[in-house]
Amino acid sequence: MRLSELLGVRVVGAHGNNIGTVADVRLVQDGPLQQSKQAALRVDGLIVVERRVTRLFGYERHVGPALLRRIIHSRLGAVRYLPWQDIEHLSPDVVRCRSAELQLFEELPDRLDQHPLPSH
After folding, report:
1. Does the residue 120 lie in any domain?
2. Which CATH number belongs to the domain containing residue 15 in this structure?
């Protein structure tokens, strides 16, 4: 399955409750060094929105003008984060997670601070 095929797929919780749809895939660059001398990317998790959306605009977190963030959030509904290791089942039709509730995306710590790139 290609990562792009996950976009728009329905996400359900452990009890079958509808959580939302996949809006984006979150990658971190902390894998082994490649020939390009850069660390490889790995899938860290999925960004899930309450309401179906075709595109995120980068305002899911606390960035940008407050009025614009409110408009975007009213369209998206809740924006949540599903860590890759919490996925129980993955198919072209549905992603089922191990928990019933997901953490709000805006409450996540900045992953770059937790996983610094290797120094050369």
Report:
1. no
2. 2.30.30.240
How far apart are the C-alpha atoms of 98 and 80, rounded to whole Å? 14
Q: How many domains is the chain partitioned into structurally? A: 1
Tokens coding 24: 């984006």
Count other Cβ atoms within 10 Å, centred on residue 22.
Answer: 19
Residue 9 domain flag: yes
Terminal C-alpha separation, the chain: 33
Q: What is the pLDDT of residue 116?
A: 40
Nearest to 30 by CA among 22, 44, 40: 40
**pTM for the full predicted model:** 0.75
Return d(Cα 74, Cα 65) in angstroms, integer.
14
Dist CA 82 CA 116 (whole Å): 21
